[in-house]
Amino acid sequence: MTNNDWDFDSGHLALDFANTAEFHASDHPDERLNTYADLVSWSEAAGILPHQAGTKLLAKSRREPQIAGKVFKEALEFREIIYRIFSALAGNEAPVKTDLSNFNRTLAASLKNSRVTNIDQGFNWDWQNMGETLDSMLWPIARESANLLISPEVKRVGECADDRGCGYLFIDTSRNHSRRWCSMEACGNRAKAQRHYQRKK
Q: Using CA atoms, how far apart are residues 87 and 18, in angstroms rounded to an integer?
């Protein structure tokens, strides 16, 4: 996929990653991450993986296909953990303890690679060896997911109310927390048309 094919409209990186499976709450989600190369493409488009690092990772994945396959499988498992945690919170439910435990395991492994670096205006988070190991794009995803969990903004996480199982997660920035749909152009209009049909019927 090209960088223009990805959706980054949720309002947060963690939710954008969760939304890489469409109709996530249905019995048959539409998977958009089908290869390790897709994972690299998404990470570059998300701005968490510099293009040069992505190129190195793709070359490394071709040299080490078995390891790349294992990392890709782990990335999808981590995405599902993120989705289940934030979907539960969007429904005012507590996440499953095993999901939180597994999330923290990945977070701890990721943070080992973090560091603080000096920049012109002060200091900034950075990652050592970014692009050197095949799972390095997961490090910022894990940290940003944790940042959302501990921030007040987590109370604004919502999930599309579409009854077909859209499952799209988003940050609800409406004044009275009234957003219900991934977008009015998609699920919102369909629901509106369905209500109209039922009234006419």
A: 10
